[in-house]
Amino acid sequence: MAPSRDSLPPASANLSNGLSKTQLEEWDRNGYLLIPDALSQTEVKELLDESNKMLHDFPLEEHPMTRFSTGESSDHVGDDYFLTSGDKVRFFFEEDAFDNQGNLTKPKNLAINKIGHYLHHLSPLFNKSSINSQNANIARDLGFKDPRVLQSMIICKQPEIGGRVPPHQDSVFLYTNPPSAVGFWYALEDCTVENGCLSFAAGSHKRAPIRDRFVRNEEGTGTTFAPNEGGQWPKGLEEDKEVKKEVYDLGEVKAGTLVLIHGNLLHKSEKNTSKKGRMIYTFHVIEGENEYDGKNWLQMSDNNSGFTRLNEAL
């Protein structure tokens, strides 16, 4: 189980100056870090209200009804609506929100899997919560020289239909050479075992290489997984042959918690079969000095100079 709120130092005492030595040691050891109260409850309410407004207000007319699968299949992300979302705000449905005839079985606000992928730039409230000195200080302490923000999302984990996410590594989907991705994951609602909280294979960022990449296919019309021919490790790591035997620690957190996730870390979440949703806001940071090539599924419509410099917040 995750540590209780009382067992961790309050974020307000640490994040104004970045991460503490204890937090950095825990990060290095586990590959993830839970930081309670990184958002105030006022900020949580503002972002949650804005998220719900977006879910209610987006139009269904002319929407391609693109579904986002959380399983191993990548067929769901082959359309233009997904591939051109890197610098836009778009809405992706849960797979289980439709009947066999393709009709929605839930109200649209309870049928969306996620909203992405440029909220940190196009939404003033989410921009404020992403590109700020708190996150810049954290990135600095994690060793980033030119941190760039990309792939910002509201992930809904809807009641009863929020899909299971199998074990995965974020650097597979946002690859740099060498790997550098770190997830910044802010809970906007309490995340529990019942509604599909995250689980982490602690220390797997030191054992699990980035063997594959999630890339655009050769035709540019869809996506696929391909062997990684570039760097697979941050420096100094050695492969563990027992990666498939990982044990996962539950990460139950309260609203307002920031979860940091190393790009090589294996993590997952289970299906939400409860009546309570689990909405979060997340974005990723990559090292701007590392190569980010055109094979990655997420690309800007012009070029990747659109990836926001987090250091601009300092």
From TrEMBL:
- Please list the cofactors this protein needs: Fe cation
Which keywords are on file for this protein? Iron, Metal-binding
Q: Write down the InterPro entries for this protein, in alphabetical order.
A: Phytyl_CoA_dOase-like
Family that this chain belongs to:
Belongs to the PhyH family.
- Provide the protein name: Fe2OG dioxygenase domain-containing protein
Q: One Pfam family of this protein, by short name?
A: PhyH
What is the native source organism of this protein? Hortaea werneckii EXF-2000
Annotated GO MF terms: metal ion binding
